[in-house]
Amino acid sequence: MGIIVQLTTNSIKENKKRTIVTIIGVALSCALMIAVGGMFASFQQMMKDFAISRYGDYHDMYINVPDDALHCFSDESGVKSISYGVINADINEYFDATMIEKTDGYNADAEYSAVMVYYKNPQQYMEIRERLVANIKNETNEKVKVITNSELLRYEGIMGDTTLTTVLSLAGIVIAIIVFTSIFVIRNSFSISASERTREFGMLRSIGATSFQIRSAMYFEALIIAIAGIILGTVVGIIAILCLVQIVNALTTELFIADDMNGIRVVIPFWIFAIVYVLTFVVVFLSCRSSARRAAKISPIEALRGVYDTKVKNKKLKTSKLIQKYFGIGGVIADKNLRRSRKKYRTTVISLIVSIATFVGLASFLNYGKRAIEMEYGGVSYDIQVVTANEQNVSDITALSGIDKLTVVRTIATDKIDIFVLDKDSFAEYAKQAGAKVDYENTVILNGYADEQYGSKHIIKSVVDYGASDTVKINVIHADNESYDPDEKTEYEITISKSTDKWPEVFNNYYSPMFVVSEDYHGIEKFEQTYQRKNYQVFINTNKSNDVEERIKNIFDKNRPDDGVYYSDMVHNVAQERRIMNNLMLLISIFLYGFIVVITLIGVTNIFNTITTNVMLRSKEFAMLKSVGMTEKEFNNMIRLESVLYSLKSLLIGLPIGILISFIIYKALANSIDFGYVFPWRAVLVAIAAVVLLVSIIMNYSVKQVSKQNIIETIRNDNI
């Protein structure tokens, strides 16, 4: 075996480029699996941290345990840690971690004293809890109440959780795709290695080497590549996780502020490395297995003659007359070469197909995500929305500094079309937009349009049969802050000054009919005598939304009366939500495009390996063709046609699959929000350009390397 190992080591050293490319393929596969596993573990840890910050750092909370039974917790071997606290809330109602005041010791005098227990093995929480409850009852003859931190147990994977299951399923699918793609890359590399060493194996067999020794030579090469790939992949994978976590935390800072969290922590459990290493060795072994068997079965005579890889029938090599007509002899040779090397050709094409289909499908998913955000926030022109029933709140908010623009709206409810009362500046702006006269006391603007749904289509159309200069009767509903009676109403008349299909800027997403008047309109006092309910909406434009939001909350606290709470007080930081959604979309884009890039890189290593090695193995063929008179033009035509055929077949299969994936994604999303199917033209065009460019660059690079060789020396070379 010593000579076999030595020859294999020499072969690896002599074929440095192929070996390096194969190691890179293994390393990328290993790194991506570690990154996916590490990000899943980090996400799970983030959810656990969220549960702890929201509900407390315990698995079970034991309420009002008698003093003489506290030793039961320290005596229980399944308990990892114990902490004490007092609950400042009714335990029969909802409460969270903010209502638990931790104490240094157990306070038995409190109304609700608590012993918070964290278990060593949470999977056994039910058995441990039953033992503790039984032991306490035996000691004191009292049964204690136990509150379980279900959220923490869910995110630890003990109880079922759909979010965690979904993320785990996605991670499993991604790893399956990585393994599937990697097998093609590595298998092709070993196939090329076996082809290159065919004569070497033939000579070894002729002097007595056994099939077992030949297989061992291939497996030894696989072992070296796997170990090198795992070492490199581990380093790259850990660096990738560290970078991804930093990016995630930078883009999602505002998500964690409310729960006093510092973002995602990097967590890479040992079991992830164990699983990835086993998967990598399995992938490399399976990739090498067929090549090792083929190398072991080849007869010495066939190996020395070099005919093992080119067993084809004449009828399979018939070439289209169109190829012969437009590409000449070079095109014919190119077509015949691809037909006789179907396995290598197929492997390269499959690598391209996977990359194309993945890119087109995921690009469509991102496009639908962006459209959903645009639908939700695209027409929203303000940064903060305030809802309040306290007129003093409105006055104080209006006086705040740091506000670029402010719109105050009151609503008067009628039995059909509501009346919206704007502040004078906002009304003047809207009147000019609608083409109406700016008369604060008399102008009434009607928007009689609404968004009506017909199946999956939305059509904005007029829903009223009156317009400008018409006087219409409206029924204002009787209401105040305590009551609302839609059956009791008072009839008034209102004269329409202007009809329009435009909504005030702050109601761009309203899509319902409305009457719009100024706060100085002459009929406001009459309307408000009937509709006495105070409801203000304040729409604010500012580039300091978080600061303004905090100051508005302080105003709410300052103006809240001692004898009650204005439950309708609400501040909605739209700008922050918009930033969060855009950052989440960017984050998803980074993950998905990062996944596409790595899968493509794995495929590119395969394509590069296949094409460059195939061209190098054909260097004698190229030299012979040139020696018998093939011109440079014919030679270039041959190479171009091979590039075209690689690209064409990949695109003809990959694009339909990618488009099908995009349609499946559309149908899955259409249940919740239907934009109509959007054909992914941009992704298709990018895929076409990328494939043609990639194949052309690799082919030209390979040919340039061969062109540097001397024709006579190349023909004389035996490739041994």
The amount of helix comes to 55-70%
Give the CA-based shape: flat
Major sheet: arrangement of strands: 14-9-15-8-7-16-6-17
> Care to count the β-strands?
17
Residue runs with pLDDT of under 50 for 5 or more positions: none
- Count structural domains: 4
Number of helices: 22
Main sheet characteristics: 8 strands, mixed
Mean pLDDT: 79
Tell me what portion of residues adopts beta-strand conformation.
5-15%
Structural class, by secondary structure, is: alpha+beta
- CA(first)-CA(last) distance: 21 Å
CA gyration radius, whole angstroms: 37 Å
Describe the model.
The strands form four sheets. The chain has an eight-stranded mixed β-sheet with strand order 14-9-15-8-7-16-6-17. It has a five-stranded antiparallel β-sheet with strand order 3-2-4-1-5. 59% of the residues lie in helices and 14% in strands. With 720 residues, the protein is α+β, with helices and mostly antiparallel strands.
Descriptive key words:
59% helix; 4 domains; eight-stranded mixed β-sheet; five-stranded antiparallel β-sheet; 14% strand; alpha+beta; 17 strands; Alpha-Beta Plaits; 720 residues; 22 helices
